[in-house]
Amino acid sequence: MDSKILPFLQKIYFPASIFLGKQSFMFLKAIQQERKLIIIPKSLKDDNKELLISLFGDEFECFFQDREPQIEDFNKLKEHCQKNNYDYLIAVGGGSVIDSVKMVKKELNIKMVAFPTAVGSGAEVSQYALLIDNGVKKVFSSPEFLPEIIILNTSFLNSLTKEQIIFQSIDALSHGLESLASKASNHFSDILALDSIEIIYKNLNKLNEKGNKEEILEELQIASILSGLAQSSAATGLCHALAHYFGVKNNISHSKAVAVFLTDVLDLNYKHTDKYRKIGRLKSLSSDNFVENLQELFSKLEIKLEKINVLSEDIIKAAEEIKKDICSLTNPYSPSLEEIIEIIKKHQ
Known about the structure:
Blueprint: E1 17-20, E2 36-40, H1 42-47, H2 49-56, E3 61-64, H3 71-82, E4 88-93, H4 95-108, E5 111-116, E6 128-133, E7 136-141, E8 149-152, H5 162-181, H6 187-210, H7 214-234, H8 238-249, H9 254-270, H10 290-300, H11 315-324, H12 337-345
Parallel strand pairs: 1-8, 2-3, 2-4, 4-5, 5-8
Antiparallel strand pairs: 6-7
Helix pairs in contact: 3-4, 5-6, 5-7, 5-9, 6-7, 8-9, 8-11, 11-12
Protein backbone atom coordinates (compact mmCIF):
# COMPACT_ATOMS: atom_id res chain seq x y z
CA MET A 1 0.00 0.00 0.00
CA ASP A 2 1.28 3.46 -0.91
CA SER A 3 1.02 5.40 2.37
CA LYS A 4 2.17 8.78 1.02
CA ILE A 5 -1.41 9.93 0.47
CA LEU A 6 -2.60 9.00 3.99
CA PRO A 7 -1.51 12.21 5.78
CA PHE A 8 -3.84 14.19 3.53
CA LEU A 9 -6.95 12.11 4.23
CA GLN A 10 -9.44 12.60 7.05
CA LYS A 11 -9.02 9.59 9.30
CA ILE A 12 -8.89 8.18 12.80
CA TYR A 13 -6.70 5.34 14.03
CA PHE A 14 -7.49 3.21 17.08
CA PRO A 15 -5.27 0.92 19.17
CA ALA A 16 -6.06 -2.79 18.92
CA SER A 17 -7.43 -3.15 22.48
CA ILE A 18 -8.04 -1.05 25.58
CA PHE A 19 -8.56 -2.80 28.92
CA LEU A 20 -9.98 -0.59 31.63
CA GLY A 21 -11.12 -0.67 35.21
CA LYS A 22 -10.05 -2.44 38.36
CA GLN A 23 -9.61 -5.83 36.65
CA SER A 24 -7.58 -4.50 33.72
CA PHE A 25 -4.25 -5.72 35.14
CA MET A 26 -5.46 -9.30 34.64
CA PHE A 27 -4.47 -8.97 30.98
CA LEU A 28 -0.88 -9.50 32.07
CA LYS A 29 -1.69 -13.14 32.82
CA ALA A 30 -2.14 -13.63 29.07
CA ILE A 31 1.50 -12.65 28.43
CA GLN A 32 2.96 -14.04 31.64
CA GLN A 33 5.40 -16.34 29.83
CA GLU A 34 6.54 -13.74 27.29
CA ARG A 35 9.82 -11.86 27.67
CA LYS A 36 9.08 -8.27 28.61
CA LEU A 37 11.03 -5.04 29.06
CA ILE A 38 9.45 -2.40 31.31
CA ILE A 39 10.31 1.17 30.32
CA ILE A 40 9.57 3.53 33.21
CA PRO A 41 10.91 6.67 34.96
CA LYS A 42 13.08 5.72 37.93
CA SER A 43 11.06 7.93 40.29
CA LEU A 44 7.84 6.19 39.24
CA LYS A 45 9.43 2.79 39.82
CA ASP A 46 10.59 3.86 43.28
CA ASP A 47 7.12 5.18 44.18
CA ASN A 48 5.34 2.00 43.01
CA LYS A 49 7.69 -0.85 43.94
CA GLU A 50 5.05 -3.08 45.52
CA LEU A 51 2.56 -2.54 42.71
CA LEU A 52 5.18 -3.32 40.04
CA ILE A 53 6.28 -6.48 41.85
CA SER A 54 2.65 -7.62 42.10
CA LEU A 55 2.28 -7.12 38.33
CA PHE A 56 5.61 -8.36 36.99
CA GLY A 57 7.18 -10.45 39.76
CA ASP A 58 10.22 -9.93 41.96
CA GLU A 59 12.68 -9.76 39.08
CA PHE A 60 11.70 -7.79 36.03
CA GLU A 61 13.84 -6.09 33.42
CA CYS A 62 13.76 -2.29 33.52
CA PHE A 63 14.92 0.51 31.27
CA PHE A 64 14.71 4.03 32.72
CA GLN A 65 13.36 6.99 30.73
CA ASP A 66 13.59 10.04 32.99
CA ARG A 67 13.16 13.02 30.67
CA GLU A 68 11.41 14.16 27.54
CA PRO A 69 12.63 11.79 24.82
CA GLN A 70 15.86 12.83 23.12
CA ILE A 71 17.29 11.22 19.98
CA GLU A 72 20.01 9.71 22.20
CA ASP A 73 17.37 8.05 24.41
CA PHE A 74 15.68 6.53 21.36
CA ASN A 75 18.98 5.16 20.06
CA LYS A 76 19.94 3.78 23.48
CA LEU A 77 16.62 1.97 23.92
CA LYS A 78 16.70 0.70 20.35
CA GLU A 79 20.23 -0.70 20.78
CA HIS A 80 19.25 -2.35 24.07
CA CYS A 81 16.24 -4.03 22.43
CA GLN A 82 18.30 -5.19 19.44
CA LYS A 83 20.62 -7.06 21.82
CA ASN A 84 17.70 -8.89 23.42
CA ASN A 85 14.78 -10.87 22.15
CA TYR A 86 11.80 -9.15 23.77
CA ASP A 87 8.26 -10.18 22.94
CA TYR A 88 6.70 -7.07 24.51
CA LEU A 89 7.76 -3.55 25.40
CA ILE A 90 5.81 -2.32 28.43
CA ALA A 91 5.62 1.48 28.64
CA VAL A 92 4.74 2.63 32.16
CA GLY A 93 4.63 6.42 32.27
CA GLY A 94 3.41 9.58 30.62
CA GLY A 95 3.92 10.91 27.13
CA SER A 96 7.72 10.96 27.29
CA VAL A 97 7.99 7.25 28.07
CA ILE A 98 5.21 6.22 25.72
CA ASP A 99 6.56 8.24 22.78
CA SER A 100 10.05 6.72 23.20
CA VAL A 101 8.63 3.21 23.19
CA LYS A 102 6.33 3.94 20.23
CA MET A 103 9.33 4.95 18.13
CA VAL A 104 11.24 1.76 18.99
CA LYS A 105 8.13 -0.42 18.62
CA LYS A 106 7.70 0.75 15.03
CA GLU A 107 11.40 0.53 14.19
CA LEU A 108 11.88 -3.01 15.51
CA ASN A 109 8.32 -4.35 15.12
CA ILE A 110 7.95 -5.36 18.78
CA LYS A 111 4.52 -5.56 20.41
CA MET A 112 3.73 -2.80 22.90
CA VAL A 113 1.61 -2.46 26.02
CA ALA A 114 1.02 1.05 27.39
CA PHE A 115 0.22 1.83 31.02
CA PRO A 116 -0.50 5.59 30.96
CA THR A 117 0.32 7.12 34.34
CA ALA A 118 -0.78 10.66 33.47
CA VAL A 119 -4.22 12.10 32.79
CA GLY A 120 -3.21 14.40 29.98
CA SER A 121 -0.78 13.32 27.31
CA GLY A 122 -3.01 11.02 25.24
CA ALA A 123 0.19 9.65 23.70
CA GLU A 124 -1.05 6.09 24.15
CA VAL A 125 -3.76 6.59 21.49
CA SER A 126 -1.98 9.05 19.23
CA GLN A 127 -0.48 8.43 15.80
CA TYR A 128 2.06 11.16 16.68
CA ALA A 129 5.30 10.91 18.64
CA LEU A 130 7.66 13.67 19.78
CA LEU A 131 11.43 13.44 19.86
CA ILE A 132 13.93 16.17 20.75
CA ASP A 133 16.80 16.40 18.29
CA ASN A 134 19.52 19.03 18.91
CA GLY A 135 17.20 21.09 21.09
CA VAL A 136 14.27 21.02 18.65
CA LYS A 137 11.06 19.05 19.18
CA LYS A 138 10.27 17.03 16.07
CA VAL A 139 6.87 15.47 15.43
CA PHE A 140 6.63 12.06 13.76
CA SER A 141 3.45 10.42 12.53
CA SER A 142 2.51 6.81 11.80
CA PRO A 143 -0.42 4.49 12.57
CA GLU A 144 2.26 1.91 13.45
CA PHE A 145 3.03 3.90 16.61
CA LEU A 146 -0.23 2.78 18.20
CA PRO A 147 0.20 0.16 20.95
CA GLU A 148 -1.37 -3.25 20.63
CA ILE A 149 -2.68 -3.00 24.21
CA ILE A 150 -3.54 -0.10 26.51
CA ILE A 151 -4.23 -0.69 30.21
CA LEU A 152 -6.31 1.99 31.92
CA ASN A 153 -6.11 1.64 35.67
CA THR A 154 -5.95 4.44 38.24
CA SER A 155 -3.50 2.57 40.50
CA PHE A 156 -0.53 4.42 39.04
CA LEU A 157 -2.28 7.79 39.44
CA ASN A 158 -2.31 7.70 43.24
CA SER A 159 1.13 9.30 43.48
CA LEU A 160 0.11 12.32 41.39
CA THR A 161 -0.13 15.63 43.24
CA LYS A 162 -3.11 17.90 42.79
CA GLU A 163 -0.92 20.29 40.77
CA GLN A 164 0.18 17.50 38.44
CA ILE A 165 -3.42 16.41 37.89
CA ILE A 166 -4.47 19.98 37.09
CA PHE A 167 -1.72 20.68 34.56
CA GLN A 168 -2.02 17.27 32.91
CA SER A 169 -5.79 17.77 32.60
CA ILE A 170 -5.21 21.16 30.98
CA ASP A 171 -2.99 19.42 28.42
CA ALA A 172 -5.81 16.97 27.67
CA LEU A 173 -8.28 19.88 27.53
CA SER A 174 -6.04 21.63 25.00
CA HIS A 175 -6.10 18.52 22.79
CA GLY A 176 -9.88 18.65 22.78
CA LEU A 177 -10.14 22.40 22.21
CA GLU A 178 -7.46 22.62 19.54
CA SER A 179 -8.63 19.56 17.60
CA LEU A 180 -12.19 20.94 17.68
CA ALA A 181 -11.10 24.06 15.77
CA SER A 182 -8.38 22.39 13.70
CA LYS A 183 -8.39 22.72 9.93
CA ALA A 184 -8.44 18.89 9.92
CA SER A 185 -11.41 18.52 12.30
CA ASN A 186 -14.09 16.01 11.29
CA HIS A 187 -17.26 14.45 12.68
CA PHE A 188 -15.40 11.72 14.58
CA SER A 189 -12.82 14.05 16.10
CA ASP A 190 -15.53 16.57 17.06
CA ILE A 191 -17.55 13.99 18.97
CA LEU A 192 -14.47 12.81 20.85
CA ALA A 193 -13.25 16.36 21.52
CA LEU A 194 -16.58 17.64 22.82
CA ASP A 195 -17.06 14.71 25.16
CA SER A 196 -13.54 15.13 26.54
CA ILE A 197 -13.97 18.89 27.06
CA GLU A 198 -17.20 18.34 29.00
CA ILE A 199 -15.68 15.64 31.22
CA ILE A 200 -12.48 17.57 31.96
CA TYR A 201 -14.20 20.87 32.71
CA LYS A 202 -16.71 19.17 35.02
CA ASN A 203 -14.08 17.17 36.89
CA LEU A 204 -11.60 20.02 37.29
CA ASN A 205 -14.39 21.88 39.04
CA LYS A 206 -15.02 18.81 41.21
CA LEU A 207 -11.31 18.45 41.91
CA ASN A 208 -11.23 21.99 43.26
CA GLU A 209 -14.11 21.19 45.61
CA LYS A 210 -13.39 17.60 46.68
CA GLY A 211 -9.70 16.84 46.10
CA ASN A 212 -8.20 13.75 44.46
CA LYS A 213 -11.13 11.35 44.42
CA GLU A 214 -10.73 8.05 42.59
CA GLU A 215 -13.85 8.58 40.49
CA ILE A 216 -12.50 11.95 39.33
CA LEU A 217 -9.23 10.33 38.27
CA GLU A 218 -11.11 7.59 36.44
CA GLU A 219 -13.11 10.15 34.47
CA LEU A 220 -10.06 12.30 33.71
CA GLN A 221 -8.19 9.22 32.51
CA ILE A 222 -11.01 8.38 30.10
CA ALA A 223 -11.21 12.00 28.95
CA SER A 224 -7.49 11.94 28.21
CA ILE A 225 -8.05 8.97 25.91
CA LEU A 226 -10.93 10.74 24.13
CA SER A 227 -9.02 13.97 23.60
CA GLY A 228 -5.92 11.99 22.59
CA LEU A 229 -7.92 10.25 19.87
CA ALA A 230 -9.32 13.62 18.76
CA GLN A 231 -5.89 15.21 18.42
CA SER A 232 -4.53 12.09 16.73
CA SER A 233 -7.27 12.44 14.12
CA ALA A 234 -7.39 16.23 13.70
CA ALA A 235 -4.05 17.42 15.19
CA THR A 236 -3.66 20.48 17.40
CA GLY A 237 -2.70 24.11 16.77
CA LEU A 238 -0.77 27.22 17.76
CA CYS A 239 -0.86 26.52 21.51
CA HIS A 240 1.11 23.31 20.98
CA ALA A 241 3.49 25.03 18.57
CA LEU A 242 4.30 27.57 21.28
CA ALA A 243 4.61 24.85 23.93
CA HIS A 244 6.94 22.77 21.74
CA TYR A 245 9.30 25.71 21.31
CA PHE A 246 9.39 27.14 24.81
CA GLY A 247 9.10 23.80 26.59
CA VAL A 248 12.53 22.87 25.23
CA LYS A 249 14.10 26.35 25.29
CA ASN A 250 12.96 27.15 28.84
CA ASN A 251 13.04 23.59 30.24
CA ILE A 252 9.32 23.69 31.09
CA SER A 253 7.27 20.49 31.22
CA HIS A 254 4.95 20.12 28.26
CA SER A 255 1.72 20.38 30.25
CA LYS A 256 2.88 23.56 32.02
CA ALA A 257 4.01 25.08 28.71
CA VAL A 258 0.58 24.37 27.21
CA ALA A 259 -1.14 26.00 30.20
CA VAL A 260 0.86 29.21 29.68
CA PHE A 261 -0.52 29.83 26.19
CA LEU A 262 -3.89 28.08 26.00
CA THR A 263 -6.39 30.87 26.73
CA ASP A 264 -4.41 33.44 24.71
CA VAL A 265 -4.48 31.19 21.64
CA LEU A 266 -8.17 30.40 22.13
CA ASP A 267 -8.93 34.10 22.39
CA LEU A 268 -7.00 34.85 19.19
CA ASN A 269 -8.53 31.99 17.22
CA TYR A 270 -12.06 32.79 18.42
CA LYS A 271 -11.88 36.09 16.52
CA HIS A 272 -11.10 34.31 13.25
CA THR A 273 -13.15 31.09 13.17
CA ASP A 274 -16.69 29.96 13.87
CA LYS A 275 -15.59 26.40 14.72
CA TYR A 276 -15.90 27.06 18.45
CA ARG A 277 -19.67 27.37 18.00
CA LYS A 278 -19.68 23.59 18.37
CA ILE A 279 -19.04 24.13 22.10
CA GLY A 280 -22.66 25.28 22.27
CA ARG A 281 -23.66 21.59 22.21
CA LEU A 282 -22.21 21.17 25.71
CA LYS A 283 -24.15 21.55 28.95
CA SER A 284 -21.34 23.07 31.02
CA LEU A 285 -19.82 25.63 28.64
CA SER A 286 -21.15 28.30 26.31
CA SER A 287 -19.62 29.00 22.91
CA ASP A 288 -19.98 32.73 23.63
CA ASN A 289 -17.86 32.93 26.78
CA PHE A 290 -16.01 29.62 27.17
CA VAL A 291 -12.61 31.36 27.26
CA GLU A 292 -13.75 33.47 30.22
CA ASN A 293 -15.17 30.32 31.86
CA LEU A 294 -11.80 28.62 31.55
CA GLN A 295 -9.94 31.65 32.90
CA GLU A 296 -12.26 31.71 35.92
CA LEU A 297 -11.71 27.99 36.53
CA PHE A 298 -7.93 28.34 36.28
CA SER A 299 -8.10 31.22 38.73
CA LYS A 300 -10.09 29.10 41.21
CA LEU A 301 -7.55 26.30 40.83
CA GLU A 302 -4.83 28.84 41.72
CA ILE A 303 -2.70 27.90 38.74
CA LYS A 304 0.73 29.49 38.72
CA LEU A 305 1.88 29.94 35.13
CA GLU A 306 5.56 29.75 34.18
CA LYS A 307 7.35 32.85 32.93
CA ILE A 308 8.85 32.74 29.43
CA ASN A 309 12.48 33.74 29.00
CA VAL A 310 13.52 34.98 25.56
CA LEU A 311 15.92 37.76 24.66
CA SER A 312 14.41 40.71 22.77
CA GLU A 313 16.83 40.15 19.88
CA ASP A 314 15.68 36.50 19.62
CA ILE A 315 11.93 36.98 19.80
CA ILE A 316 11.37 37.40 16.04
CA LYS A 317 13.35 34.22 15.32
CA ALA A 318 11.32 32.41 18.00
CA ALA A 319 8.05 33.54 16.39
CA GLU A 320 9.28 32.39 12.97
CA GLU A 321 10.14 28.93 14.33
CA ILE A 322 6.77 28.66 16.06
CA LYS A 323 4.96 29.62 12.87
CA LYS A 324 6.85 26.84 11.03
CA ASP A 325 5.95 24.19 13.64
CA ILE A 326 3.79 21.45 12.11
CA CYS A 327 1.03 22.14 14.65
CA SER A 328 0.66 25.70 13.34
CA LEU A 329 -0.39 24.27 9.97
CA THR A 330 -3.68 22.97 11.39
CA ASN A 331 -4.45 26.03 13.52
CA PRO A 332 -7.76 27.45 12.24
CA TYR A 333 -6.16 30.85 11.69
CA SER A 334 -2.67 31.63 10.39
CA PRO A 335 -1.37 34.23 12.85
CA SER A 336 1.08 36.96 11.90
CA LEU A 337 4.50 37.11 13.49
CA GLU A 338 3.33 40.20 15.36
CA GLU A 339 0.40 38.27 16.89
CA ILE A 340 2.68 35.43 17.99
CA ILE A 341 5.13 37.91 19.50
CA GLU A 342 2.30 39.66 21.35
CA ILE A 343 1.30 36.35 22.98
CA ILE A 344 4.91 35.61 23.96
CA LYS A 345 5.40 39.06 25.51
CA LYS A 346 2.36 38.58 27.77
CA HIS A 347 4.26 35.85 29.62
CA GLN A 348 7.77 37.27 29.90
